[in-house]
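user: Please review this fold.
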Amino acid sequence: MPGSGDTLIQTWLRETLEEAAGCDAWPLLGPAGDPPYLMFSQAAQTDADTATLDGGAETLTTGTFTVEVYGETYTQAHELALACRQAMRHFAGSSGDLTIQNVLVVDSKDSDPVFEEGQNKPFAYVVELTLSVSWME
């Protein structure tokens, strides 16, 4: 359904990552091309209903996202990952109809470099970030 929480959170995540890293961010598998670029996917999602002061209820959704940062060099991949971590860590705020309660950087680690067939030098170096994002619509 257009405008659903998944669409809103994915749009927010993409825009925030692109602004932080200064390069394209794609959900799942983006178009092939030379690094730098980022790919992200949602690994899990849970909902928790909470009572409001006026007797209503709101749903707090928490999603776990994996962000793969691809750089031409090992250093570039780590610099872009650091920029993403700094932009995301403990972020809270609103974006349209979406209210981000908190973003936690759960993990940051090197992933296997990407090699093109027949090449000895990596095509891209990869840093994987794991984020926990809590939001309400």
Summary: The helical segments are 5-21, 74-88. The CA atoms of residues 29 and 126 lie 14 Å apart.
